Amino acid sequence: xxxxxxxxxxxxxxxxxxxxxxxxxxxxxxxxxxxxxxxxxxxxxxxxxxxxxxxxxxxxxxxxxxxxxxxxxxxxxxxxxxxxxxxxxxxxxxxxxxxxxxxxxxxxxxxxxxxxxxxxxxxxxxxxxxxxxxxxxxxxxxxxxxxxxxxxxxxxxxxxxxxxxxxxxxxxxxxxxxxxxxxxxxxxxxxxxxxxxxxxxxxxxxxxxxxxxxxxxxxxxxxxxxxxxxxxxxxxxxxxxxxxxxxxxxxxxxxxxxxxxxxxxxxxxxxxx
Length: 273
Hints:
Elements: H1 4-42, H2 48-63, H3 72-101, H4 105-110, H5 115-123, H6 126-147, H7 154-174, H8 180-196, H9 205-231, H10 241-270
Helix pairs in contact: 1-2, 1-5, 1-6, 2-3, 2-8, 3-6, 7-8, 7-10, 8-9, 9-10
């Protein structure tokens, strides 16, 4: 039988391990953002903006269960602002690639004009600078919070908040009139939250595959919906309208099948949790 001191040491080691994990993830994401900044500044490749947004999404997923700790609110706000800045830029890139892929090169290239200046503006933006500045100090905030006893039961705290995300997703899936926009957001949160804290083992490989597939189906649906809305105001998109309408309906059908499978998987794995 372990003594009280031994039990306290085990709990402390577990807390320390989770804090070390968070700090390691923060440093990894900081390095990736710095690399994205340099790629954007030099306009080295077309995926720099996409990679920056993925890194930003992983950062926000890491932070969400940490709300209440010093610096988290400020870093979340900075990340949100950078996301708001880059969303329309990435949307334009995706649409341009779609148009070029469909043989409408002129319409696609028009949307890529000035991309080097766009990339440079993101690289030097105050939004990105703010995220990087807070990230630089964030591990110190966490270590100071630990010394002040503010990071007690960190693993339990994170686990509880992730379970809440899964429950919210499961409940939304059970609604016959579910909102695809909201489901897409909840699925992304569950998927990236699980990837941020794999040691908590909320989703096995099968469930992760379903989340990824559902996110892809809903992403296809969302893109077509947005493009069709834009086609109302942009004549050069009209040649694609019929194809997008057909693909929209197919994406709806495929997403319904995947969402049904995801609901069943969640019911089996998380029922009563």
